[in-house]
Amino acid sequence: MALALYGSGAYDSWRDGRSLDEACDGTLAQGGLASAMGSSHLRAEQDDGGSSLAQCFVKTARSGTGRAVQITLRWSTAGPPSDTLVWYNADYNGVRAQAAPLGNGWSGVVRYDGTWQIMVALDCVNQKNKALVAYGDLFGASNGTALTGLGRVTSETAQKAAEKYGCQAEAGRRLTSVSTALLGKPGTAKPLGQAQGSCVALRGTTAPQNSTPEIMEYPADTDAPQTNCYLVTKAQKPGYGLYAYYGAAAKDFESVGFTHPDDDYAWATATCPRSTQKAVFVIYRLYDRDTDTFPVAHYSNSFARSALKAFADHEAKQRGCTGVRLADRS
Question: Is the pTM of this model over 0.85?
């Protein structure tokens, strides 16, 4: 009978199903996998995650879309994440470090740098110095349906892993749509006066007098572990980038360190209720890869600090953070 089962292909199907059930230490959520992969014929392989809590790789079991999904789980208290998992050393490089809020109450972001990645960080309310962090990477041609599937797999795996490992965390609602919209494309800049989302705090600043009369922004989301706002020149080139990092994202950002070829940045911190990790706010004069120049020719430290203060104060107020303090770099 075993031979008949194997010959019929049923054994292969059973083996593939079991590989999914055991993937990522049994925490891989399968609800969105078919959408992410564009196929229901899937199998999983365990990866050597190094210092990661768990890591698994899902691919099609038969010829299919050519997509693959990798899920990586780690504790925020472990060593610094690998360069392939984080993007913070690119903050000064145009809009490359942008991350959109995942939405639906999830502490997560969506980013694209050649491939799509979703990061979810669940703060442990029973261990405020700790968070369960999940990364989902989607390889191969994709679309909104695939990205939404990746969002479900990543967020629901994070939730399962938190429960398995004793991290009491607040999860979001089931994802039904994840946008593929990206800043930096034509039509994504608008006048500063029209800011309503992540750049709204900059409306009363002297940004127009400092060569950046326009902005690019994402919707405001007080659950996202990263917020970013870009101040844009008349030529619609990003001139300054403002970023806020919370919880595990703030810890990982600090582990990478502040990087800028000309030291043209300012930063601040605040104490927030969800985590013992202080929030970090930073502003950079941005470099443009297309023209190999800085679109804002001269960095103004006084403007950068005033813009950062407005941004940080607004972010802190929205999230119940206190004690915003600008760092003295003199």
Answer: yes
